[in-house]
Structures are given as structure tokens and as C-alpha cells.
Amino acid sequence: MYFVGMTTAQSSIMRVFPRWARFLQLGDVGIQGIDCRWHDDPHVYRRVVEFIRDDPLSRGALVTTHKIDLLRSCRNLFDALDPHAELMGEVSCIAKRGGRLCGSAKDPISSGLALEAFLPDGHWINTRADTFVLGAGGSAIAITSYLLAAWHGRDRPARLIVSNRSPARLGEMAAIHRRLDADFAVEYYCTPHPADNDTILASLSPGSLVINATGLGKDAPGSPLTDAAIFPPRGWAWDFNYRGDLGFLRQARAREKERQLHVIDGWTYFLHGWTRVIAEVFGIEIPVKGPRFDELARLAEEVR
User: Fold this and answer.
1) Which residues sit opposite 61 in a β-bridge?
2) Can you give the pLDDT at residue 141?
3) Whole-structure pTM value
4) SS (HEC) of 287-303
5) 109-265 domain in CATH 3.30.300.20?
6) CATH number of the domain at 2-105+268-301, out of 3.40.50.10860, 3.40.190.10, 3.40.50.720, 3.30.420.280?
7) Out of 22-31, 155-164, 172-181, which region has the weakest mean confidence (pLDDT)?
8) H-helix or E-strand containing 146?
9) According to the model, what pLDDT value does residue 218 have?
10) Could you say which of 10, 28, 207, 290 would form a disulfide bridge with 129 (CB–CB 3.0 to 4.6 Å)?
11) pLDDT on residue 165
């Protein structure tokens, strides 16, 4: 199995995967990282996908950071895409089925599972708080799509706000949201400077959720906020990253006591993200909760 990212050797999955493989009885399997540059040349992505497709020993891959760029460069190489991949224009999982190369987008599932793991039931109804998503890439599209889902009914944020340095990415996200037919208005802001995000942050109501989905703090150093940023009181600060310089996480923890914040890193998201893809690549069932999932979490935590 392959891991397509930027700094794959530093990921905990390199230590976790062998333990999981033994527990799941996957047999004689290994994991190998493939590092690409941020927004790499389309030919690079095509070489990666063609290799996985043509190599008989390759079962599939998890894709991070490059999910949108990879599908944009390689769409015609896939024999099938799942509805999430078609809707969001990204692939986070590459798997083979009966000689067919299949692409899927697992983040709407895994990000929703990670959010449900820490946010209290009925939070939005009870607080009428907001959600502010920093970033407009694949992970941001996934979590906003989850939050916009009609099946939540009234249990959705009072406001859903998205910011990004690139207006083009915001436009792509807005187009995806329109295809969801969500009866919910999303606010989009182009924020080329961290101080612009600080201004939005200061407008959030108590109990609001702030998500760093930019990749800053892992794929590149820094944070989308300045150190002067004021988090909402009794709010939730969720960094999708769990490794790197974790600038956003550091800023939130510095204000944790003062603002009565709940600060969450990306570890649970990591667990759900990888287990959903491993299940797809190897064609096995992996539960999303219960004793079997708890054991996978324990095995991972020991080598975190």
C-alpha cells in the first residue's frame, strides 16, 4: 500500500501500519511513502497513478494534500469514482477491484466521524454557535459538506464561514456546495493575510468551532492566524494536523485556559482517515467504533 503526500516518512502511519496489519491479519503487506511537491506537475501525479495501476504488487494508496490536484491530473486513468469523489473533485483513496482502478473520497466520512467523537450531541441546537473553517482544499470541502448535509436538520451551525488565501479555491468550493443543494448559506472570504482571519475569528459567537484545514503547521510551517488572534469563549479549536510545527494548535493552547477552549488535534481524524482507506484498499470490514476499533486506536497510540 502506498501513501501519497509530502513528508510521508514523518507520519505515524509508518510505525502504526505494521501493527495494524498484524492485528487485521492482512498478510505479507507493507506501506511505502511517495512524496510530491505541493501542487506538483500533473505529469508527476500521472506517473504515480499509472505505477499503482500497472504494478501487480500495488494494492492501492491513501492520498493526502494532493487529493484535488491528483484527480484533476488523472481523471481519465480511473475506471470508477465514488459519488463523493465525483461531487468534490478529489480522490483520497485509490483501490483496485477486479482489474479496475477505483478512486474514492473518504474525508466526508472520516472527518464527520472525528467531529462526532468530540462535539456533544445537539451542540448547534443548544448553542446556536458558528463554524469557521480556515482553508478551502480537500479536507475543508469534506468537513463543510458534512456540516451542510440535510439529514442534520436544525442541528447545524448558525453560520458556516470559510476563508482561504486563494479566491480560485473558494470559487471551486462554492460550486461544490451549490451542487449539494444545501438550504444553508455559506460565507466565503478571501484572506491573503493571517490578520484577515483574526478579524473573522473575533466575530464568532461563544461556543463556536474553529478548524485549521489549511495544511499550515504540517505541510508548511506556520498558522493561518496571528498570535494576537482571539478565540471565541468556550469555543472548540480543531487542528486537522497532529504533527509538524502545529502553529495553530500552539496558539489555541496558549489561550485555552483564558478563553475556556476545547483544543483538539488531528489524531482521531488520522485514525478514522486511515482505517476507512485501509478497509477499502484491502476489501475488509473495519468498524468505526467498539472494541475492535478501540484496539486499533490503542495499538496506534503506543507508537504515536
Assistant:
1) 2, 94
2) 92
3) 0.92
4) CCCCHHHHHHHHHHHCC
5) no
6) 3.40.50.10860
7) 172-181
8) helix 138-148
9) 86
10) 207
11) 94
